[in-house]
Every structure is written in structure tokens, then in C-alpha cells.
Amino acid sequence: MQHDFILLDRSQSMTRQWDEALAAVNAYVEKLAEDKVDTGVTLAVFDGVNGACSFDVIRDRIIPSTWHKVTGKDASPRGNTPLNDATGKMVNLARAGNYDKVAIVIMTDGEENCSKELSVQQARSLLDDCRAKRWQVIFLGANFDNAMQAMSYGTVAAQTVSAAQGNFVRSTVMMANKRAAYGSGMAATMDWSDAEKAELAKKQ
């Protein structure tokens, strides 16, 4: 059994690129449906409000072919970035299922800045447990060079990519292709080449 967990940063700084970020999420799931990837999809958005991590699941265990597009009516940008705490909550959701193959996609445009429950090291430990199961953990920087941040969470360079504004949809369609290969057993990991990363980082 397979599943995809998408953790989307809804902090205030995402305002200018929010529509494109949502389009990228929709494009990812639609490509999974097109490729008939046998998986479910859970989408959660997070931010920090009133000193606490707000973590909202807005699509829960959806089969890609039945996906309803996410829009600004579902969520809009507002608070800070409690990335550690949100990561912990997403990993707990993944652990609750009996999954063989999992892709955890973390899409953010900035650094952790307000977690109260988990440190970076604790969040990394949770993600390391996922990687030990051969689950895929992908950090996608939304108009943000997230290489150093991803490294601090234990993610190798090949599973970290930064997309310039204008390239979000392209990046998630490419990622869905990698996800299909991972799901079918044609690829052990969802890796990005240096050439792919350089192309996606180019400003449009």
C-alpha cells in the first residue's frame, strides 16, 4: 500500500506565490492520476498562529483520480513557519497507516522560525526513521534555496530541489514522474539531477 503526504507552508511570505503553489499541488496529483499511480494523497497546510502550530489537513487519503482541486477557498497564507512541529505532525499521520511506499513532500519558502514542540534535531530524527523504511522525503523550495535547510533535516542533495517562481508546476509534474517510477519499482529513490535542479532554479 502506498501514500503521498504533502506538507505545504501557508506562512504569510507565501502570499505572492500562493496561487502558483496550489496549482503545483494540483498538477502533482493530476499527474499521479494520469500515470495511474496506485496511491492515496493527504495534503496538510501549516503555519504559526498565536504562538502555536496550526496544522490543517485539507485533503485526506484521496485517490488521485477523484481529487478536487485545491483553491484559495481551502486555505490562504497568514502566520509564521513552525516547520519542525508541522513535520512531526505529518510524520505521525504517515506512521498511522500501514504503508509500504510513502512519499513525503515538504514545500516551503523559508526557514523554521517558531516551533515550540520539536527541535530541528528531533524533526530530523523522525524523518530519518521514515528514510530507514525507504520512504521518500523530498524538500521542495518555493522560490527559496532550501539546500542548507534540507540538509539540516537529513535530506540528501539529490532529494532537494528549489523552483523559481514560474516553475512550481513544472517541478511538481517532474516530481510526479519520479514518484511513478518509485511506486512501480523502476527507481529506488526520487532523485533530482544537477541539470534538472539548475533548470528549475532559473527565473522565468
Q: How would you describe this protein?
A:
By secondary structure, the chain is α/β, with parallel strands linked by helices. It has one domain: von Willebrand factor, type A domain (Rossmann fold, 3-Layer(aba) Sandwich), CATH 3.40.50.410. The chain is 36% helix and 24% strand. It is built from 6 helices and 6 strands; from the N terminus they run E-H-E-E-H-E-H-E-H-E-H-H. A 6-stranded mixed sheet has the order 3-2-1-4-5-6, sandwiched between helices. 46% of the residues are buried.
Show the helix and strand layout.
Elements: E1 2-9, H1 18-34, E2 40-49, E3 52-62, H2 83-95, E4 101-108, H3 120-132, E5 136-142, H4 147-152, E6 160-163, H5 168-184, H6 194-201
Parallel strand pairs: 1-2, 1-4, 4-5, 5-6
Antiparallel strand pairs: 2-3
Helix pairs in contact: 1-5, 2-3
Count of helix runs: 6
Spatial sequence of strands, sheet with the most strands: 3-2-1-4-5-6
CATH superfamily: von Willebrand factor, type A domain
CATH topology: Rossmann fold
- Regions with pLDDT < 50 over 5+ consecutive residues? none
- Record field, number of beta strands: 6
Key traits:
204 residues, alpha/beta, 24% strand
Task: Give a short summary of the structure.
The protein contains six helices and six strands. It has helices at residues 18-34, 83-95, 120-132, 147-152, 168-184, 194-201, and strands at 2-9, 40-49, 52-62, 101-108, 136-142, 160-163.
